[in-house]
Amino acid sequence: MRMLAVSRFTLLRLSRTRYILAGLILIALILLTYLANAAGGAPASLNDLVWPHNLARWLLWLAAIWLGINLVHDDRADGTLRSTLTRPISLLETLFGKLLGGWLALALLAAGVAVALTVAALLKGVPFHPAMLTFQLALLPGHLLVLSLALCLGQAMPRFAAAVLVLFADDGFYTAKALARAAEWLPGGLVATITPIAKALYWLSPSVSLFYLSFRDFVYQPPEAAVWLLGLPYTIHYAFLAGLLAAALLGRKEL
């Protein structure tokens, strides 16, 4: 219950005017991108949603990094974290509560993006498809992986360095398919050098590729439900371990 209280407090902090305004601007940017992409003589179709949904995916990725890096830092800076820990609540409960609150904020933002794009598409005559609403929500476990990794690394190193590391912590960058694409335009010697590095990064990075699918593939080639469901326990365990490590790192600092 105390963890839920912290998550509620985190959501209240994120409901300040500037954060709501930032979320509305992000939704408006994605919506305008869709409308500009769909403008023209060709009839509106589901394919017109591919670009804005993938744009939303990456913007929410960046939002997850920003939240993970700053949720604890901001509370340390203004003394909120120190004040919270004077009450009967542990540092671990506080971190997990903040992690949950940040993830719920991302879920609300993802739902807003999905609804805005769906309404705009329907008004332009695009036939309804369930993926219009479910795609962004299906990515939320992947956002939790990013958020928890950012929260952990944010306690181990400067915020900018942590953000850069999390930005490239996507196993989809280092798959055999990605390396094959890189081999088409990179010198052979360079490809041979980076291949073992990429393989190591593939195993070290969180498996966001379980959830980060292209919108087109999600519509026409839905992923196996079993694979997606098996990814949920992995995500929960990853977030739990990241929270434990973040608490250990933060416990050594002056709060």
- Radius of gyration from the CA trace? 20 Å
Overall helicity: over 70%
Strand content is: under 5%
Shape: globular
What class would the helix/strand composition place it in?
A: mainly alpha
Number of strands: 0
End-to-end C-alpha gap: 23 Å
Poorly predicted regions are: none
Q: What is the string of helix and strand elements?
A: HHHHHHHHHHHH
How many individual domains? 1
On the 0 to 100 scale, the average pLDDT is 80
Main pleated-sheet profile: none
Task: Specify the number of helices.
Answer: 12
Written overview of the protein:
The structure is a single chain. The chain is mostly helical. It is built from twelve helices and no strands. It has helices at 2-14, 17-38, 50-77, 80-85, 91-123, 131-138, 140-153, 159-167, 176-183, 188-204, 215-220, 225-251. Helix 1 (2-14) packs across helix 5 (91-123) and helix 5 runs antiparallel to helix 6 (131-138).
List the helices and strands and how they pair.
Blueprint lengths: L1 H13 L2 H22 L11 H28 L2 H6 L5 H33 L7 H8 L1 H14 L5 H9 L8 H8 L4 H17 L10 H6 L4 H27 L4
Helix pairs in contact: 1-5, 2-3, 2-5, 3-5, 3-7, 3-8, 5-6, 5-7, 5-12, 7-8, 7-12, 9-10
Question: What's this entry about, in short?
Answer:
The protein is mainly alpha-helical and 255 residues long. The protein is built from twelve helices and no strands.
